[in-house]
Structure formats: structure tokens, C-alpha cells
Amino acid sequence: MAIFLCIPPVSSLTPYPAIPYLTSSLKANNQKATTFDLNIKAFNLTLFHQGLKIKPGKILRKSDNKGNAKWKKVPDAQIYSTIQNGQKIFEEIMLQEASDQLGYPYSNSISKDIISEEAIQATLSDVWKICNDWILEIAKGPKEQSIVGFHVITHSGLLWSVLLSRKLKKIQPRILTVLGGPAFASWEEVLSANPEIDLTVRGEGEATISDIAKSYNGNLESINRIQGISYRNENGKIISNVDRPLIKSLDDLPFPDYYDLPLEEYPQNKFGMPIMPIVGSRGCIGDCVFCVEKRLWGNTYRMRSPENIVSEFKNIKEKYGVSTIRFNDSLINCNIKSLEKLCDLLIEENAGMQWMGMARIRSEMTDALLGKMRQAGCMGLWFGIESGSQRILRKMKKGYNIETAKNVIRDTAKSGIRVLTFMIVDFPGETQRDFEQSLAFLEQNQEFIDQVSISRFGVLPESEISHNPQEYGIELSKEKTGNNYSYFYSPLPNSYRYENLRSAWNRLNNGKTASSKRNYPLKIIVPYY
Ligand code: B12
Ligand code: SF4
Q1: Topology adopted by domain 275-457+493-510
Q2: Ligand 2 test: best mutation among 285, 289, 291, most atoms within 8 Å of CB?
Q3: Whole-model pTM?
Q4: Span from the CA of 56 to the centroid of ligand 2 (angstroms)
Q5: DSSP single-letter state for residue 477
Q6: What is the domain partition of the chain in residue ranges?
Q7: For a disulfide at 332, which of 167, 221, 357, 435, Cβ 3.0-4.6 Å?
Q8: Residues 154-192: pLDDT tens digits?
């Protein structure tokens, strides 16, 4: 039995914890997997391609990711003026390539001033070389007992998983291809549309992948009773087994194992380290109508104990030499008492770690708590403000009022923590007046806001809106373009609100971060990628 796991080009530029969670679970069950991080390898091949018309810069790399915590500068390396620009171009190139290869229409928006067609082709040829080497390596494995699992989070990740599975199946038809991840689609639909995928894992994957690895003997019958899987039976029918119950205590899980990821290839901060994730909880207490969080984690919220989280902090520092953490939790402040305890422990341990995470606007985020968070190493908080209009916030079921939002972001900034906000434009029913209130919110609070991430509203399948579009005055069309199983909705096709809000923010910000305006003593850049 050989297990291969793959992170397709999803474009996230910090190590993603899903595959490391599966790896550590497999290891705890005496099973072994090898991981191919195509995402970061392909990203670097794109970023460093000499055909790119890029600005010179510097990047730092770790010399050895196996326990050696020394990091060094790579001389004369070139990098985009910002990593984020490179990320966008990378996403477009990858999506275009997978769509072309699978025969789906897609037209990218890459400017020829940045990269020529020849340079794109040369980059892709390098990417295909590493993919083909990986495919050949798998083909050398046991003919009838190899399992190849893909982690799917984005549309391009799904396309690449299908594409690579197709190529693998051509060489080795008996390989078992498995997809898992926070599904944005019905896994049954993915299976029925893509004959090269044998099986999909719904929900948490730790126990399921171990069960598959334990029982698979080259024949689907050996695993067709496993909970939480969907598969195609011998008559071509898609079968979904019962859901797997959620893990009762997250403290029981072994820490995710990042050794199989090429950590030295991830972009690093100015201290020469990548940012490592910690997942302190699964689920959310929010109920926002556009979100699928509830469905993903079975309408529950589970948090690890603060002690267990602090031990992972220490583990990350010792094992990987990294002291900057990003909480991947949907929200780090669902349970205020536990958050406080976590901060107390980090202060007590004098852990010397910096961290950031997403947080909900709530009145419990007092000066005292924020001060303690800062003392415990919190550098930045992302708040899903979404809109400056109370009417729209109510429709979104955000559960807070705009006055509280103003107070919380002001207090956060004053405590020395960077404030990053998410905003949504074109939510169904948003009027010009509502939009202007969002603009006014940014204007009135710009002094406290360091970064704004603006998104155009979209409908996620299985979100509350997708079930009741008429209640929001919209109609959804479900199109399948390029294997995109999402719903389409364009209420305001000629809306320029997205561009307007972006340029308004840039104007307000005038190229400066709020903290430099405020002169806060923060030395670290908090990237959003
Ligand atoms: C942190 C986070 C990010 C970070 C990722 C940073 C990183 N590298 O770690 C950042 C900020 C980059 C990010 C970006 C985006 N994100 Co995000 N993100 C999350 C978040 C909050 C946590 C992810 C996480 O770490 N989960 C913990 C791990 C352990 O869980 P998991 O990935 O689900 O894996 C488990 C199972 O799914 C399964 N599994 C996973 N893979 C596999 C593979 C196999 C083979 C098997 C068997 C099982 C299996 O087993 C795992 C262990 O139980 C999730 C919401 C959530 N709570 O999950 C949203 C979420 C995944 N993101 C989402 C979205 C929409 C995005 C963006 C598209 C947003 C945007 N508009 O730009 C981008 C896309 C990223 C990109 N371009 O690559 C959506 C996806 C919805 C969907 N599927 O349609 C989610 C679910 C949020 C939401 N509620 O809407 N995100
Ligand atoms: S948008 Fe954020 S707060 Fe709302 S349900 Fe989703 S994860 Fe929770």
C-alpha cells in the first residue's frame, strides 16, 4: 500500500494544515504517506521565472527544514513588489491552464506588460515537468494498491485535482483517486461529473483516511462501508455512506505534521520565516447568511483546550524554528473565557511568539482583553465588518451593530494590534445609500484600520442565501463552467462599487498603513495570504 497526498495549486502562500493533519493521523496509525506540494512549487516556478518582467527584491529561505532553524538570504533573487500581485497572476495562469486542458472556457486577465505568452508557456512547461515526475513516481508504486488524495479548497484546486487524476489514471488505471476538503460543492456532483475521481471524503478526514489506508486492498468493496465517503459503485451509481460523527475532543488529535511540506519554499516574513497556521477550533458561533461555516462543521463549535494550543505553539517553535503563527480558526473569539486563558498561558510561558487571527465584532472585546491579547503576542486581527449599513448587517445576520464595530476597532488599534477588515459590496438589496455608509465607515475610522480586503458578493452553495434566494430578492442560475459548481448571481452587472470602494480606500490610505500614521510600535508586517 502506498499513499500519496497532493496540494494542488490553490494559491495559498502559507502552509495549509489539512494534509499535515491527515499525515499525522496516518503516522499515528503506523501508516505512511508522501506529500507533493504542487501549490508552492508551481508558485515559485511562476514567481521566479526569468521571463517575468518583475521588480528586483529579496527573499529569505530556510536552509534546511528538518529541525535546523537557520534561515538565510537568497542573493539576487527577484520577487514581485508585493507577494499578493504574484499570487493573483499565479492563480490566473493555473486556472487558465487547467481550464484549457479540461476543455472549459476561461479567459484570464493577465496583462502582457507583466508576463508574455512565451514566458507563461515556459513557466507551465517547468510546472508540468514536476507534475510528470510525480506521476511517474506514483506509477512505480504498487499497481493495485496506491491511493492518491487531493486537498481541494478552491476552484482551480478542483480542476487541477481532476486533471492530475486523469493523467494518473491513464498510466495506472487501478490507482484510487480520492478528493477531500471544505467542499464548496456537492461531492456527489463532483463524482458524477468526473469519472477519473473514485471517491470523495466528506467532512473531517483524519479517521476516514486512516480507515481507507487500513482496509483498502485494491478493490472498492474493501472500503465501501467506511463512514463519510461517497463513491461510484460498479454500476456507475453514486453512493454516499452515512456521515462520520465529528471528532469529540480536538485535543485528542495529534498535532499536524508539517515535515513533508517544503517549508523553505514558502514566502517568508522579514525575520526569514514562513507563517505557520494553528487551528484552535473548528466551527463558528456566527450565523451569517452568506457563509457555509455551519454546514462544514455540522452546526457545531468545538475548541481545543488553551493548554493544548499552547503546546502546539511551543512545538512549532521547537520543531520548525518558526515563531509567527496565524490562527486558521473561523473566529478566535467565539469563547471569550478560553481566549483569555490562552493569553494568560502564553504570557506565563513567555512564549515569545507573534500571532494573528480572525475575530468577531462583539462588545466583550474590551480594552482589558485586547491589552492582554497584545501582551500575549497578538499582532493583528481581521474583522468581518462587511458593511457600514446597519440595514445590510441585519440582512446578513452579522449579529452586531455598527457602533460596537467602531468601538472594537478603535480599542483594538489603541491596544497596538493591527486592524484588518473584510468588506463586501453588492450584497442583495444594497442601495447606493447603504454603499455610501460603507464608504463613510472606512472614512470615519481610517485612522484605526490598517488594511481592507474588499470582496464582491457571491453566493456559496449551501449557504442560507442559496436555499432562499427569493427571500433576498434574487434569482440564482446554476451553471457548470469549467467544472465550477457554484451558483451565479449578478444583481448589479454594471456596479462599480467594488472599484469605487477600493480606490476610495487607497485614496484615504494614501499608501500609508494606519499604524505608521499612528506611529504604533509594531515592527512586523502582517500579510494576508
Ligand atoms: C484559514 C482559511 C483561509 C486562509 C488559508 C491559509 C492557510 N494556508 O492555511 C486564507 C486566508 C489564505 C484563505 C483564503 C481563501 N479562502 Co479560506 N478559509 C480558511 C478557514 C477559516 C480555515 C481553513 C483551515 O485551516 N481549516 C482547518 C483544516 C484542518 O480543515 P480542512 O481544510 O477542512 O480539512 C479537513 C477536511 O476538509 C478534510 N480534508 C481536507 N483535505 C482533504 C484531502 C483528503 C484526501 C481527505 C481524505 C480529506 C481532506 O480533512 C481535514 C482534516 O479534518 C476555512 C474555514 C474553515 N473553518 O475551515 C476557510 C474556507 C476554506 N475558505 C474559503 C474561501 C472561500 C477562501 C477564498 C476563496 C476567499 C477569497 N475570496 O479569496 C480564499 C481562497 C484561497 C486560495 N486562493 O487559495 C471557504 C471555502 C468555501 C468553499 N469551499 O466554497 C471556507 C470554507 C470559509 C467559508 N466558510 O466560506 N482561507
Ligand atoms: S462569516 Fe465569519 S462569523 Fe459569520 S458564520 Fe461565517 S465564519 Fe462565522
Answers
A1: TIM Barrel (3.20.20)
A2: 291
A3: 0.91
A4: 39
A5: E
A6: 2-240, 275-457+493-510
A7: 357
A8: 888 999 999 999 999 999 999 999 999 987 667 888 898
